[in-house]
């Protein structure tokens, strides 16, 4: 079973459970005049809608790439996660409004033992459904399923609060539905906001996962010809579609034939082990002469002494043209241009006959 099939199957399970709960809770809510149970039924209905949206989003995101969208439609899954987060948020706000009104103007309810048993069963059903959906979502990296599972978990808490209020009403005659509803509604609103922000962060672009970048670099540097791997960038075009690029440092006497074979082998190994389409660029290391080695050591020492500089790489020098090139990664909090200019000035003091071309890189990965 592939990833999209797992998402659809899991969502269908969620739809079935929620529709059954809607039917039972609606009957109990109207029979007992309980606004909390009725709202709970509406919440289950919104969960079923979320699962339907997840299925639609999965089908759309699985469309083949075309001329207009050459990287495919995988990012549609992020949009479905946003829609689900908004649904959770709206459900929480609606519940908060209704619960506040119920807390200010409580009404008599008429719970029975049968209704309490059904509500308790609903709590258990929603709890385990939420765990199941979220677990599958985490396994296959589906933001939509994770959001749906989290929503179901919070629904189980809401149902438990309804059950507690019903027991308190039966045993002590207390009207706690509204108060507990307000508390749980606030929790749901908070969860909706967090889901929304997390999904938006993914759309905007987050730093690549450290474990994944370490694995990519380990594969790239496993080839004996590679001295180092730098400038790794990874772009998500959906949770399961990753395209990236990296630069490798190799001796400057490596032939074009050798480079062609090496980069093809690296790209093939990264794709075979991680499923990442990687483009490989080249840094030619030219520190074989004594003079260039001394210049490199000086530049490295100055870079190490500057706390704002995270890394220096891609060193290349030409003694005949009197030019030296290398890249710097500067902390995002620092003024990168000023740091570069300061280092360039120090290098010119020591080697005034050379021209230094220093490129600023961004730290996309740890």
Features:
alpha/beta, 3-stranded mixed sheet, Alpha-lytic protease prodomain-like, Alpha-Beta Plaits, 64% helix, single chain, 366 residues
Could you characterize what this model shows?
The mean pLDDT is 84. The strands form two sheets. This protein has a three-stranded mixed beta sheet, with helices on one face. The two termini are 34 Å apart. Helix 2 (35-61) runs antiparallel to helix 3 (76-104), helix 2 runs antiparallel to helix 5 and helix 5 (143-172) runs antiparallel to helix 6 (177-204). It has helices spanning 3-32, 35-61, 76-104, 113-140, 143-172, 177-204, 210-220, 256-274, 290-305, 336-350; strands spanning 228-236, 242-251, 276-285, 309-318, 323-330, 355-361. The protein has two domains: 3-204, Alpha-lytic protease prodomain-like, CATH 1.20.1510; 210-361, Cation efflux protein, cytoplasmic domain (Alpha-Beta Plaits). The chain is α/β, with parallel strands linked by helices and 366 residues long. Helix content is 64%, strand content 15%. Helix 8 (256-274) links the parallel strand 2 (242-251) and strand 3 (276-285).
Offer a concise description of the structure.
With 366 residues, the chain is of the alpha/beta class. It has 10 helices and 6 strands.
Write the layout of secondary structure elements.
Blueprint: H1 3-32, H2 35-61, H3 76-104, H4 113-140, H5 143-172, H6 177-204, H7 210-220, E1 228-236, E2 242-251, H8 256-274, E3 276-285, H9 290-305, E4 309-318, E5 323-330, H10 336-350, E6 355-361
Parallel strand pairs: 2-3, 5-6
Antiparallel strand pairs: 1-2, 4-5
Helix pairs in contact: 1-2, 1-4, 2-3, 2-5, 3-5, 3-6, 4-5, 5-6, 7-8
């Amino acid at each position: 079973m592939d990833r999209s099939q797992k998402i659809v199957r899991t969502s269908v399970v969620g739809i079935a459970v929620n529709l059954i709960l809607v039917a039972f809770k609606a009957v109990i809510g109207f029979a007992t005049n309980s606004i909390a149970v009725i709202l709970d039924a509406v919440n289950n209905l919104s969960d079923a809608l979320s699962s339907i949206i997840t299925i639609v989003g999965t089908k759309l995101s699985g469309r083949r790439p075309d001329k207009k969208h050459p990287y495919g439609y995988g990012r549609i899954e992020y949009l479905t996660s946003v829609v689900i987060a908004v649904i959770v948020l709206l459900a929480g706000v609606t519940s908060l409004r209704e619960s506040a009104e119920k807390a200010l103007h409580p009404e008599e309810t008429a719970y029975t033992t049968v209704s309490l048993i059904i509500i308790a069963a609903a709590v258990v059903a929603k709890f385990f459904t939420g765990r199941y959906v979220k677990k599958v979502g985490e396994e296959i990296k589906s933001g939509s399923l994770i959001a749906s599972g989290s929503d179901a978990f919070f629904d189980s808490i809401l149902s438990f609060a309804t059950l507690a209020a019903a027991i308190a009403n039966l045993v002590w005659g207390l009207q706690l539905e509204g108060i507990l509803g307000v508390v749980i509604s606030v929790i749901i609103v908070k969860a909706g906001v967090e889901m929304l922000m997390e999904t938006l962060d993914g759309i905007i672009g987050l730093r690549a996962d450290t474990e994944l970048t370490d694995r990519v670099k380990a594969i790239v540097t496993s080839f004996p010809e590679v001295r180092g791997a730098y400038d790794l960038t990874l772009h998500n075009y959906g949770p399961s579609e990753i395209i990236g690029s990296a630069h490798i440092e190799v001796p400057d006497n490596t032939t074009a034939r050798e480079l062609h074979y090496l980069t093809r082998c690296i790209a093939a190994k990264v794709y075979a082990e991680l499923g990442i389409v990687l483009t490989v660029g080249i840094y030619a290391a030219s520190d074989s002469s004594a003079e260039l080695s001394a210049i490199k050591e000086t530049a490295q020492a100055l870079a190490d002494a500057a706390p704002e500089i995270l890394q220096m790489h891609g060193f290349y020098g030409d003694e005949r043209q009197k030019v030296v090139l290398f890249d710097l990664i500067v902390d995002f909090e620092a003024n990168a241009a000023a740091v570069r200019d300061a280092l360039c000035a120090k290098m010119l003091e020591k080697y005034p006959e050379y021209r230094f071309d220093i490129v600023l890189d961004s730290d996309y990965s740890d």
